[in-house]
Please model this.
Amino acid sequence: MKKPFFVITMLCLLVVGYSLAVAQESVALTIRCKADTNGGEGWRCDNFSQVEEQVEKSLGIQLDLTLIQDNKDWGEYKNEFVLATEASEGPDIILSGHEDIGAWAPAGYILSLDDKLEAHPEFGDIVPALWASQTWNGKIWGIPQDAEARPIFYSKPLLADLGWSDEEIASLPQRVLDGEFTFADLVATAKQAVDEGVVEKGHGFYHRTGNGPDWLIWYYGEGGQVLDEDGKLVFDKDAARAALELIGSFGSSGITREDMIGLDGNILNTDVASAESVLFYQGGTWNWANWARNFVADRGGNDYLLENVGLLLFPTLNDKVGPLTLTHPLSYMISSTSKNPDVALDLIAAVTVPEANNRHAIGSFHLGILNTQLETADYADNQALSQAHYMLDHTTSIPNDPGWNAWSNAWWVAIQAAASGSTPDEAVDLAVNQLTSELGDKITIR
Model:
């Protein structure tokens, strides 16, 4: 008699267990990422699969994640998201440049996150300066996924050839941070290197060769603003004029080659990575991995760079501003079409931890976004990253505003003009004319 009762009991338990499993909520989420997987960026999306089980247990749900990751052109990638969202078929999570917040938030494509952040202590570890890049109209719309700095690289051997001691070379980043070595000092040092034949004419200082966010550092460094206190676009002619006067002087002074604008990237990278040809170079931290893999691999790669190349904040241009850098975080944003935005944010929180972000930062040579990453052995032991992490405390970013592209393009026109021999006033006028033509009363000219 006991055996049938036992069988019936077990069958009941199996039925109950099956019913509970069936009753467990199943949540489907799509996550869209752009990544160069050959460059170690695959963790942008792949990290979510690593935390899937953890989030399932935490929420008591069953997750069905669809990860879509490729390396489409940015324009095509962003247009795909806009069209999908307008058709109510957008992904739940989209990874994109933080500047898209300025267009997507007012268009209603993404959700503000302010009222949800406190539930996730992970976000409290994010480097505070990065939050400015996630904000539009006083609200937060994104979570930083990675970061970088745009420092000035310098050749240690060439400084030694100028007679600098090991101590003077090693202390240069700190002296820049303390305001003891300014951009005027950098220019004077570059000029000395050219005059004394330590470097060829034009090899004292290299800068960016095309349009891009780096050029904003010059304007910021002279005290310029892009957004005023009310969030309106601004163009400050005095700050622009001071920056353009300096940029325009590089070629005529002999510290920068006259064909710098438009210079082939392979020439630039070969010159800088060798640490034998160029004294100072304004670039991005991501260059380091490219140089180690593709330009000095036969000399020791990363170890060669650590021995021969240093990096420092952009030195003080204006005493009121001090040393600075610029970062362009990619950000996770939640689509307004998501049916499960809270679960989406739970997933983002789960990958916003040192272990997950280290995988991406170290694999792709991006700076970590979290303060406590410096306390982890993997990140701290990676000198190329950890030596630059402090720069995020002094960072700026491009603004989140729909008019940014028009502002940036006008600034680029002015920079090209100044570098080609136009006077600072002429270059400023070109920018002002283009800005007023394209933006009208959406920008204030000061």
Summary: The mean pLDDT is 93. The first strand starts at residue 26 and ends at 34. The radius of gyration is 25 Å.
